[in-house]
Amino acid sequence: MAKIKITQIKSIIDRSERQKRTMQALGLRRINHSVEVEATPSIIGMVRKVNHLVALESL
Q: Name one GO biological process term (predicted).
C-alpha cells in the first residue's frame, strides 16, 4: 500500500463531535501536526469526511 502524509491545517473548535473523533482517529492533535499512514480504504474514507480540515501529500 502507498503511504500518505496527512496534516491538520484548520482548528476543530466548533466542529461536530463526529469530525473531532475522526481527527483523533487519524492521530491528529493540533494545527500543523502531521502523520504518515497507509492509504487504506478506511483511512481514505476518514480523510474525505474531514477534507476541509486537512492537507494531503503522497509519499
A: translation
